[in-house]
Amino acid sequence: MRVALDAAAAEHAVFPLRPRSKKPAIVEWEASATTDPDQIRQWWLQGPQNVGIACGPSGLLVVDLDTPHYSHAVEADEPQGGREMLAALAAAAGEAFPDHTYTVATPTGGQHLYFAAPPELELRCTVGRLGRWIDTRGAGGYVVAAGSVRPEGRYRLHRDALIAPLPQWIIEALTPHPAVESTGLRLPPERAAAYVAAVVRGEADAVARAVTGQRHHTLLRAAGALGRLVGGQELDYAAAENTLRHAVEGHLGRDGFTPDEADTTIRAGLAWGIQRPRHITDTHHRPAQD
C-alpha cells in the first residue's frame, strides 16, 4: 500500500478511496470493505489510493469535529468549532471531554475521535445532531484513515490510544427518540402549564442563588433542564434563554464570571437538553365540556 495504514485502522474493514480524494474508488464500498490482506493488496497494486474505513462493518462510531470555514460567520461568544462545542456539551452532561481514544487530525484542522459503537444499537451517520460543527460517522458511513492525503494535506495520527467505548451520554444523544412515549409524566394542559412554570422558577432561583464555585455547573444543569422542556415543545426557546440570562445577571462580573461564559454555558446547556426532550402535556386530554 502506498498509504501507510496504522495498526488501529488495519484492524477494521477498509476499502480504497480515489487518490488524493475522499471519494470511494469502488461502487459497493460498504459491502466490499474487508480486513483480508490479499484483497487489500490487490486493490493497492492498481496504484496509489487513499484508505477508507467502513464504520458499520468495523463496529465504529466516529465523532467528526469540524472547524468553521472562513465563509461561516461565528459570533465571538459561540463555540469556535466542533472541539469547543463538544467540550461544552460534555460539561453540560457533567462528563469529561471524551478525548481518551484513538484520534486522527484532519487536513483542514478538525479531528476524528474513534469510538467502539454499542453492539446492541445501530447508530447511523448524523449531521449536527450533537451540535454545530459536529458530525458522526456510523453505520452506512466511512472515514478517511490516517496516512491518506488530500490537496489540503495529510490525515495524521493525533492520539495513538486504544479505541474507547462510546460514552453513554453520547449514545443517549444519538439514539433516535420514539415517536410516541408510552411512559412519563402526563398532565392536562392547565396543570402541565403550572408544572412547567414551577420548574422554570425553580431553575431560575437555583441559578440566582448559586455560590462561587458552583455557578457554572448550576447554570449548565438549569439550561439542560429547560432545554429538555424546549425539546418537548413545553417551553419556548426564547423564553428559556431569557429566563436564564435574567437569572444569571447578578453573577456577571463577579469573581471572573463573564457574560461570554454565561452565554456559552446557556447555549450549550439548552442544546444538550433539546436533544433529550421531556414531554409533560397530555396531548390527548380533552377539556371538560360546559
TrEMBL record:
Q: What sequence ranges are listed for the domain DNA primase/polymerase bifunctional N-terminal? A: 4-170
Q: Which residues form a coiled coil?
A: none
Q: Which SMART domains match?
A: Prim-Pol (SM00943)
Signal peptide: which range, if any? none
Q: What is this protein called?
A: Bifunctional DNA primase/polymerase
Question: What is the species listed in this Swiss-Prot or TrEMBL entry?
Answer: Saccharopolyspora mangrovi
